[in-house]
Amino acid sequence: MTSAQVDNGQGGRQAVEVADAGPAGEGYQRALGARQIQMIAIGGAIGTGLFLGAGKAIAKAGPSLILAYAVAGLVIFFIMRALGELLMYRPVSGSFSEYAREFIGPFAGFVTGWTYWLFWVVTGITEVTAAAQYMTFWFSIPQWVSALIFTIILYGVNLISVKLFGELEFWFSMVKVTAIIGMILICAGILTLGFSDAGDTASVTHLWSDGGFFPHGIKGTLMTLQIVMFAFLAVELVGVTAGESKDPKTVLPKAINTVPWRIAVFYVGALIMILSVVPWTEFSPGVSPFVAAFEKMGLGLGAGIVNFVVLTAALSSCNSGMYSTGRMLRDLALNGQGPKLFTRLTRSGTPLVGTTFSAALMLVGVWVNYQWPGDAFTYVVSFATISGMWAWIMILICQIRYRRLADRGTLPQSAFRAPGAPYSSVFALAFIAVVVVMMGIDKDTRISLYCAPLWAALLGISYVVLKARNPENKAFAKN
Q: The whole model's pTM is what?
């Protein structure tokens, strides 16, 4: 926190040093070790966007999707290094809204905190609904039953302890990583040894011989950017763990520095291998590229394996949503920008009320999604993308402003400076602007840009009301 005194969430006040506000005074337990932080960072970059969404993107862009993931991956690296610089300056839980509050203003912190909370609630709705759908692959049970069971289990895990959350996320991430590495090795074996049904036709020439590397032109590639960026959403989650990491100033830089090779292996590497074994023309929007590749290889168990992995990815995302929403609501409450009851912690140091409130909304969302399916899923995903990218925008702007102040000597220099900043941050902001423009051009995602102003108006009205009711609250005063 930027203030000298904060509510500890249990009826008291305690002093906090500005340079170490979050870890010292938030009341959380430092229970996340290096092993768990590393896998949370890895798992955050691997979700259903890769396992399912890539099929639609391949149909739109062909092999040039590889380039889209590579360039977007570079942008994500710039964002994560910008976040890393801020985290080493001041590691706090609820970091995005904290930094926005400090370097832009109280309203920016308010908007960022509530928007990131909404992002995870919306994402949780889509993911738990998807997980329920994946269960029908094996069992003939109503989707709402599976959704209810998954939500209750993940809710319980997040209330027991942060260590249990970290352990569950570790194994979720391990499944995803193992699946992708396994696919890469199988494809490499087919290309070099020629085994399986795909052995006779597999060739790296598929990357350019079937209509060229850009079969639908540059525009086709640009139109996939929203899908590509959605796949990377949640990579910033490692920043939310700062207040509960055992050694944030050692662990977090190591986790952030793994971003380039994670993207190179899990996205670029996996797509190169898959598209070399299976021509891009054989993929369809509604089919996972992993399932299509397994079928082409003649591996009958492929569909079941991929379904299990995608189920794991969905549950991992929902688990992360449960974790982050409670922390973000508590950060807002501690700053007087949310109801005080959200400050309450359990004995194990988890935000009880915030997590409960978010989980309840996820269940309501599941019911709504069940009642009105159709295009609702596409619209929700689009809104999740635009709200998730808001956190990235705030990270970049805050890093630029922090660097300016640090270079002047007003603030201490971070021990983990972002390379190429501020130019790398400006480039990342420009890239995000291009993605937003592409979302406006695509009729399927345009609705999210209509919803964003409505959400902004709601936040603006709420902020004015809160400020009028609490005129003495320092949380509404400019820094």
A: 0.87
Which has the closest alpha carbon to 427: 465, 400, 466?
400
The count of domains in the chain is: 1
In a domain, 317, yes or no: yes
Which conformational region is residue 62 in: left (phi greater than 0), alpha (psi within -120 to 50 degrees), or beta? Answer: left
CB 249 within 8 A of CB 231: no
Q: pLDDT digit string (tens) for 192-214?
A: 887 777 778 888 999 998 889 99
- pLDDT-derived band at 124 (thresholds 50, 70, 90) equals confident
Judged against a pLDDT cut of 50, whether residue 236 lies above it is answered with yes
Q: What pLDDT shows up at residue 9?
A: 38
Determine the structural domain holding residue 75 and report its residue range.
29-470
Q: Which amino acid appears at position 253 of this protein?
A: P
The CATH number of residue 425's host domain is: 1.20.1740.10
Q: Is residue 410 part of a domain?
A: yes
H helices present in 372-445, as ranges: 376-408, 423-441
Q: Give Cα separations from 419 to 139, 279, 416, 431, 447 (angstroms).
A: 50, 38, 9, 17, 36
Copy the structure tokens of residue 366: 């599941």
- Rounded CA separation 321/177 (Å): 20
Place of tokens 């920043």: 239
Assign residue 336 a region: left if phi > 0, alpha if psi is -120 to 50, beta otherwise?
left
Q: Among 293, 229, 262, which residue's Cα sits nearest to residue 53?
A: 229
- DSSP type of residue 15: E
Residue 287 resides in a domain: yes
What DSSP character marks residue 413?
P
Quick check: is 20 in a domain?
no
Rounded distance, CA 309 to CA 218, Å? 32
Residue 139: per-residue pLDDT: 85
Contact 53, 226 (CB under 8 A): no
Q: What is the mean pLDDT of the chain?
A: 82
